[in-house]
Design brief:
alpha/beta, Rossmann fold, 2 domains, seven-stranded mixed β-sheet, two-stranded parallel ribbon, 17 helices, about 45% helix
């Protein structure tokens, strides 16, 4: 059976499905026929309907233990496997406990892993379209939506708050901002760049990496798919006086024809569906000897080569926001970089939570 065959839509719900769901999940019948009609209109399939019942305060209260621990939290403490039918409950329970990164959520997520229904043949060529299609099928399974990065990779925020903040993140705890600073600083330290070099910051997001590199004495052009991030970077640069400018673009489209001294992917390359394609494009936009810098990227062994990450934070972001969250083995990302014409100069995991830093050079 192919991934597309596995993705066939489920039959439409019937009124009997609503009644059966109420009896099995809540132990009672629906309050009225109007409630049944409302559920039929609100939920596209039985799985989503039952998940909504398990998220309800009634279900959580009914299934809480003697200490008042909600059912969802208690269940995951006992069984650390998230399945497809659990996804909406997992996200709702996480949101009820606390934001990602909070001690309560860290405890809730500890040891949890998602197990996809979609089968992936890890013996396929990892650069092949067949393998890419299977990983996109995993993404669709988790996200419950089609892959559309122009729509799903955007972030809404109050622009004025982030323009005025001490840093673009504004509301992040100082410890988190410090970690981002260390990662970018270590990449620049290993790069051998000199003052005045012009850097292309691919997927610059909030623009923290742009501002840090400008502080280091570099000229920076940030690129992002989100026009609001582009506006944020440019307005903060004007306020602070940094030599930073941002443009709207994507991993597949870098505006203009300028050649850069270096390119940075900070916590961004893993959003690329085919990282070898964007790395090849960046290679064409670097001067001979130009540097490629990777930092804050997810190097792991979840898959033999690469694939959708199945840790709880990634699953949460995929399901809730629709972000494409992939990761790669150290061997595979090394192959990608070399395939695109780079020579790797440095590729090591830094101590603590800094993670992997890669520096590669364009020959010439």
């Amino acid at each position: 059976m192919t991934p597309l065959e596995r993705q066939k839509p489920e039959p439409a719900m019937q009124r009997a499905d609503i009644v059966a769901g109420y009896n099995e999940v809540l132990g009672r019948s629906p309050e009225s026929d109007a409630i049944v009609t409302a559920h039929l209109a609100a939920h596209g399939n039985v799985e989503a309907f039952r998940a909504s019942l398990r998220q309800s305060p009634e279900y959580q209260k009914r299934n809480a233990d003697s200490n008042g621990t909600p059912a969802a939290l208690r269940d995951w403490r006992q069984d650390k496997t998230i399945t497809r039918s659990d996804l909406d409950t997992f996200v709702a329970s996480s949101d009820n406990i606390g934001p990602p990164g909070s001690p309560q959520t860290d405890e809730f997520w500890r040891g949890t892993q998602y197990v996809p229904d979609t089968q992936v043949n890890q013996e396929l060529d990892p650069f092949s379209e067949e393998y890419v299609a299977q990983q996109i099928a995993v993404y669709k399974e988790i996200s419950a939506r089609d892959l559309d990065q122009d729509a799903n990779e955007l972030t809404e925020f109050v622009l004025a708050d982030h323009i005025a903040g001490a840093n673009p993140y504004t509301f992040f705890p100082p410890t988190s901002v410090a970690l981002h600073t260390v990662r970018v600083a270590r990449a620049v330290e290993h790069s051998g760049l000199v003052a005045g070099n012009h850097i292309l910051d691919m997927g610059c997001g909030w623009g923290t990496s742009c501002e840090l590199m400008a502080f280091f004495g570099l000229e920076v052009t940030g690129l992002d798919i989100n026009p609001r991030f582009v506006e944020l970077v440019n307005r903060r640069a004007k306020r602070i006086g940094h030599k930073v400018g941002a443009v709207q673009g994507s991993f597949e489209n870098i505006p203009g024809d300028k050649l850069y001294d270096a390119a940075l992917y900070y916590e961004s390359l893993h959003h690329a569906v085919r990282p070898w394609e964007t790395l090849s494009l960046v290679h064409s936009r670097l001067k001979p000897g130009g540097k490629l810098m990777l930092a804050g990227e997810p190097i792991n062994d979840m898959w033999k080569h690469w694939g959708i990450r199945t840790d709880p934070l990634s699953v949460y972001c995929i399901r809730k926001f629709g972000w494409f969250e992939s990761g790669w083995s150290a061997d595979f990302i090394s192959r990608c970089v070399k395939r695109c014409g780079f020579e790797i100069e440095h590729f090591e995991a830094e101590p603590g939570s800094t993670g992997w830093i890669m520096i590669a050079r364009k020959a010439g």
